[in-house]
Design a protein that fits this description.
The protein has five helices and eleven strands. Strand 1 and strand 2 (about 15-20) form a beta hairpin. Helices cover about 25% and strands about 35% of the residues. By secondary structure, the chain is of the alpha+beta class. The N and C termini lie close together (about 5 Å).
Amino acid sequence: MSVLTIHPADNPAQAERITDPDLMAERLWEIGVLFERWRAEHEFSHEADQDTVIAAYRKSIDRLIDRYEFHSVDVVSLKPDHPQKDELRAKFLSEHTHDDFEVRFFVEGRGLFYLHAEGKVYAVLCEQGDLISVPDNIQHWFDMGENPAFKCIRLFATPEGWVANFTGSAIAASFPKFEQYLAAYA
């Protein structure tokens, strides 16, 4: 189940919890974040490569490219046996921004986005079938948990794809990690 919690940036323990997808989309749109429920209608083997995933969702990807003029598409996929999962988790857990607008569609699994805007932190537990955008220059971080299990199609407005500008803020350390979030809100 997808979940949105909204916290004062200076009080991670206080949260408004929302599970209705339409209300989640409405509240996220207040900060310019697009949230939609799609159908993740294809299953992939563990060995499925990026080209296979992109080919399966080509029509949907092309619609997003036409709508937002994206210039690059890739697939990020992590499983619990990934040899660099701890290093990657630490990188994504640091608050950062991107110069460009991006969209992610969860083809499999789940992950937790934290979006820091307007004095609040919007925590979005995304699951298979969720599409979420990250507006340019919005402060955010992502937690995939100790045992990541997700596959996402990512679309970027620039040809370079994922390029992070780390803020140096320690705010992410004050919010629940993936496993703690699941226990408290999911």
